[in-house]
Design brief:
The complex is a heterodimer of chains A (172) and B (281).
Chain A: H1 2-23, H2 27-30, H3 33-42, H4 47-65, H5 71-89, H6 95-120, H7 129-169
Helix pairs in contact in A: 1-3, 3-4, 3-5, 3-7, 4-5, 5-6, 6-7
Chain B: H1 2-23, H2 34-65, H3 67-105, E1 114-124, E2 131-135, E3 146-148, E4 153-161, E5 164-169, E6 176-181, E7 186-193, E8 197-201, E9 214-217, E10 229-238, E11 244-250, E12 259-264
Antiparallel strand pairs in B: 1-2, 1-12, 2-5, 3-4, 3-12, 4-5, 6-7, 6-9, 7-8, 8-11, 9-10, 10-11
The chains are: A mainly alpha (172), B alpha+beta (281).
């Protein structure tokens, strides 16, 4: 179930990436939906699952950006592992902390990508600081929005289920 | 114990990807690998689906919004068609005349190119490799095939999978092409520049290149045939001691590509090909 949900998330991220790129050519510079999917999966607190999710999401990101393969793969694997390890030891609930977690993940990913670029592609064009900032902010906002929406939805479903059970169990 | 295995797995994954990255050296950055081919096959249809849905939606909304404008546009296009037919007749006569003169001089021309239309399914100008993915149909694209639009040169095919082809844009930092400044008939090398532009290199400072000069392919790199518009010179600055630093604006609008053409041209004889003719770094 978890794997299917992750793969569905990855497919949705790829679809939204293509739609976003078609509508706004600067979309891939401003946000990374694949990282978002990896971090959401990693927040479940399983380091192995997290790193595999990061690997899959990163390689998918490498695929849609035309490579080189392993660039985002490496960064997302490391970031997702870090998030999963942190999620095992910390319970992040406050809005600012949650946004900080997603922002830190995006910043760490960009730092790793830049470091790899310096090592493997000395002449490569690095992302401009404003786009880096946009990525960090958009990842934080999207991650926060998704997490809060999911929590709200789950709470409503639980409330409805409890109400139904109460109604069924009530003496006539 | 379990934590140790987790860390070992992490190390294996990270080191594996470092090897993968190291295997893709810059000068071979666009070559096809098993991974690249598989990704192209998997993601190509998805990008094509999104593109087709977007085009259909845009067309429908346009058609609904502006029927009157379309009728007017249709009238203008018909008038333009008549004008172009007249022009074609005139050019046809000129071509016959030029061929007769060429025959008289004993000048042997290379055979004409043929064009294969291809639909752009995904354009990514933001990653390091500035690439686009096109759908040309099974077996219709091949490696190193020049890609053009009606405005000018776009790039070359660097990988094919199924009916899809990955095209390296001329603005990619690893791309280059032999070029000719038309007015002064001086050859140089056009390369992709950071920010998505082009630079023209190896043009000596004593050559009077000016903004507005047209740059076309020189046909010296073994990939791009001669005479295809590459762009226009927008800035000329003194470079190092010997050469100009020339900035060229691409002729083809690489931000708005819907359809491109794959250019089919007769290959040079095998014994001559490969002797320094490359067209890429």
């Amino acid at each position: 179930m978890g794997v299917a949900r992750f793969l569905a998330g990855l497919l949705a991220a790829a679809l939204l990436h293509f739609v976003g790129t078609r509508l706004f050519p600067a979309f891939p510079r401003a946000t990374d939906l694949f990282l978002l999917v990896a971090v959401l999966e990693a927040r479940r607190g399983h380091p192995v699952g997290g790193m595999l999710a990061g690997l899959a999401a990163g390689l998918a990101a490498d695929g849609v950006t035309g490579g080189p393969y392993g660039l985002f793969g490496f960064a997302d694997t490391a970031v997702a592992f870090g998030v999963a390890t942190a999620a095992r030891q910390l319970v992040v609930q406050r809005t600012t902390s949650l946004a900080g977690l997603f922002a830190a993940a995006a910043a760490a990913q960009q730092a790793i990508v830049a470091a790899l670029a310096l090592v493997f592609r000395p002449g490569a064009e690095l992302a401009a600081p404003e786009w880096l900032l946009a990525r960090v902010v958009s990842t934080a906002l999207l991650g926060l929005a998704w997490t809060r929406s999911a929590e709200l939805l789950l709470a409503r479903v639980a409330a409805r289920r409890a109400g139904r059970e109460k109604k069924l169990g009530a003496p006539k | 114990m379990r934590s140790r295995w987790t860390h070992l797995l992490l190390a294996v994954l990270l080191v594996g990807q470092l090897f993968l990255l190291a295997g893709q050296t810059p000068d071979r950055g666009g070559e096809r690998s098993l991974l690249a081919g598989t990704t192209l096959r998997l993601l190509g249809p998805l990008a094509r689906l999104v593109g087709a849905a977007g085009d259909a939606g845009t067309e429908l909304s346009r058609a609904l919004a502006s029927r009157a404008r379309l009728a007017e546009e249709n009238r203008q296009l018909r008038a333009e068609l008549i004008e172009l037919r007249r022009e074609r007749l005139r050019l046809g006569e000129l071509e016959l005349e030029a061929e007769a003169l060429a025959r008289g001089l004993g000048f042997e021309r290379r055979s004409d190119w043929s064009l294969t239309p291809a639909e752009v399914v995904y354009l990514d100008r933001t990653s390091w490799l500035r690439t686009l993915i096109v759908w040309a149909g099974p077996g219709r694209a091949r490696r190193d095939q020049p890609v053009v639009t009606e405005l000018g040169l776009v790039g070359r095919v660097i990988a094919t999978a199924g009916g899809y082809a990955k095209v390296q844009l001329l603005t990619d930092a690893a791309a280059s092409a032999g070029a000719l400044v038309e007015r002064v008939r001086r050859q140089g090398i056009v390369r992709g520049a950071p920010g998505g532009g082009l630079t023209l290199e190896l043009v000596p400072r004593q050559v009077p290149v000016e903004p507005g000069d047209r740059v076309v392919s020189a046909g010296i790199d073994g990939v791009y045939p001669r005479g295809i518009p590459i762009g226009t010179v927008v800035a000329v600055a003194p470079g190092d001691e010997l050469f100009h630093r020339i900035v060229v604006e691409p002729a083809a609008d690489l931000a708005r590509l819907d359809f491109v053409y794959l250019l089919e041209q007769p290959a040079p004889p095998a014994e001559l090909a490969g002797e320094g003719a490359d067209g890429r770094r």
